[in-house]
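Instructor's aside before we start: the two examples that follow are unrelated to each other. I chose them only because their records fit on one page, so don't look for a connection. First example below.
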Amino acid sequence: MIRATKLHVDLDAFFAAVEQRDHPELRDKPVVVGVGGPSDRGVVSAASYEARRYGIRSAMPLRTAAALGPDVIFVPVDGRKYSAVSRQVMEVLRRFTPVVEQVSIDEAFLDVAGSEALHGTPMQIAVDIKRAISSELGLVVSVGVATTKLVAKVASDLEKPDGLVLVQPGHEAAFLAPLPIARLWGVGARTAAGLAEYGVRTIGDLAALPEDLLQRRFGTQGLLLAQRARGIDPSPVSAAEPARSVSHEHTFDVDTSDPEVLERTLLALAEGVGQRLRAGGVKAHTIAAKVRDRSFVTVTRQRTLAHPTDQTESIFQVARELARPELKGIKVRLLGVAASHLGQAEQMALFETGDERRRRATEAADRIRQRYGSKAITRARLLDSGVAEPFERDPLTAPEAGSIGRARQVSEPDSD
């Protein structure tokens, strides 16, 4: 008998909630967390529910957020603090089951099938998790309980904040049917537009379409969508540590081909990636650069290094070399820099080469930023550049779901 033992736990307005918890004067106030202020070109990393009443959402330009909410309070991102709180949350979850799959800094799947004898029914476990995180960490989570990861995730999002939704076995398709098609995994803007040609507005509309039609129109993705629309998701909750990466991206307000702007942006992105690596005490074996043009065609190139690094200059040089061939003759919408195949810095010190004086200067700059904020010290080349310092939500990243446009990836041979 199939049972509803999959849980999806999602922290509500995580970054903003942490700031409101730590600063009582911000409670019940509209708070926007981002890299920059109301006149900067950055984007919203998180918005409190008070700010969301103005229509403010994550990834919205900060300037737009300021225009929507004149009394919004802007708070700088503190990635180190959010990562530490995330680890505390995951420790709470692992008290109830060892089968915890963290999928981002603020959400995780659990399989509690083996925990019922000790902790009670899945619903009781969900209630106890909410109570523990609230009383011990001062944060609110929403939880979905279902037979599959897909349905549990959709359920956790339905009654935010502080939601708890159980989908009984056998009711998955009926539960999903009235929901907007955009709530389904794998449905981005382009797929939604294609489905709209067949009158699909809800998940139920999609479930009613013949599978052979979906396969002809969308290929193998069409069959996957048909299954998901019925709540079918065979993927297990995996407690294995996922491959970690650190990435920063920047979307330009206006598409550009200006070489100086593009290089400064790559430098800012490399700076952000390097800071996160050093803060985490890890180094990267692989560096990648992402380029997206005005038509949403995305190219990602990557290179495996002879020696792992956490230094901004090394990351920038490799990212620039990777991106340059793709920048010729196009207007660029987005640039990204990523570091992957990470390992502990102390374990890699034996293999490191580089300028020790430069490393000491970098570490000193990191200490200044940690104490006085991310804007306390910056590179001269980035002053008045208009390049927003990007913020990567979490070192545990996953591919974009439902991304628009074509994509290809190019891997270079390992360096000598």
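Example two begins here.
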Amino acid sequence: MRARIGGHPLHPALVHFPIGLWLASVLWDLVGWWRSSEALWSQMSYWCLALGLAAALPAVATGLLEFFAMRSDHPAIDTATAHMMAMAGAAALFGASWVVRAKTGIATAPNGVALSLTFVGAAVLAVGGWLGGTLVYRHGVGRED
């Protein structure tokens, strides 16, 4: 079973939302660090993290459908597994940053733990995104068979 509309896979279309929101949270953290007197930026980052987590749910669901539709002997199964693990790790890091921020209060600047989780999450997200691109462009995963 695959998640498709008109033969087009949904997963590649849905991943842009959590990726964009999580990277925006990094941007707002950097702006907040630069303009340390304004709580607006930490609040923007907090809500981008929260919305990114919500947007990740359909992306994860459609990604899992694509993953389980792959044959176990597919040449890209190892890349797909690494992609899935990297993206799950990134989501966990961004989620942990969101939890830390929720506990310390969204009106205050994020502490070093929250910032570290977000920045490491962005690095892991980049690796996972690269692997996702490899699946599509090198291995043709998700194309109509």
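The chain is about 75% helix and 5% strand.
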